[in-house]
Amino acid sequence: MSGSGRGGSNRRKPFRRRDHTGDETAASGRNSWQDNFPRKGRKQETEFGGSRSAGTSHTDRPRWTPVKLPQVPLDVPDCPICGKPIKDISSALTDKVSGNPAHFDCVLGKIADNEIREKGDVISYLGGGRFGIVHYADPRDVKRFKIKKIIEWEDKENRVEWRRNIADHFSVT
After folding, report:
1. Contacts 24+ apart (CB under 8 A), 43-48
2. Residue 131 within any structural domain of the chain
3. pLDDT tens string for the chain (173 positions)?
4. Looking at the domain assignment, is residue 161 inside a domain?
5. What is the CA 94 to chain-centroid distance, rounded?
6. Cβ neighbours of residue 42 under 8 Å, at least 6 residues apart?
7. pTM (2 decimals)?
């Protein structure tokens, strides 16, 4: 005797599916939802009178050609603050004195040396070439802060030439 509780029978009822009208149909029979999908080899009429296989095919469309990247590599300038080469030119900022690219960390260090900070103050990058002195009343709660001072580092109006070259190199489309 098996432990199924049905008198030892392992036979199950055949699976039955209900269509959207509530009628039960056998799993082997076609349901009304299956009529919405075409069978292989059968053209299905669209609401406009044509078949789905008629019209433009993928061979009629123009082929996508990848954009050719510039062959000239980006130059690696030296940072005017520390004198080391700038390997990640996309994260560089413009030096206020020379107008050349400078390391982000060098600019941040230069601002930190010139600004007086109190306990709970942090210098943060705000975006758009601006830094700010941000005060946290509770350093563990970074959701609540106050911007005490905004430091405009880069001029938004005048875009420097070295940044144009980078933009032309990366955005070729």
Report:
1. none
2. yes
3. 455 555 556 777 776 666 555 555 445 555 555 566 656 655 555 555 555 555 555 567 778 887 776 677 777 889 999 999 999 888 899 988 888 899 999 999 999 999 988 888 999 999 888 999 999 988 888 888 999 999 999 888 887 888 877 777 766 55
4. no
5. 26
6. none
7. 0.55
Cα–Cα distances in angstroms (integers) from residue 53 to residues 37, 45, 144, 149, in the given order: 14, 9, 60, 65
Say if 170 falls within a structural domain: no
Asked, for residue 41, whether it belongs to a domain, the answer is no
> How many structural domains compose the chain?
2
Q: Which domain holds residue 94?
A: 74-102
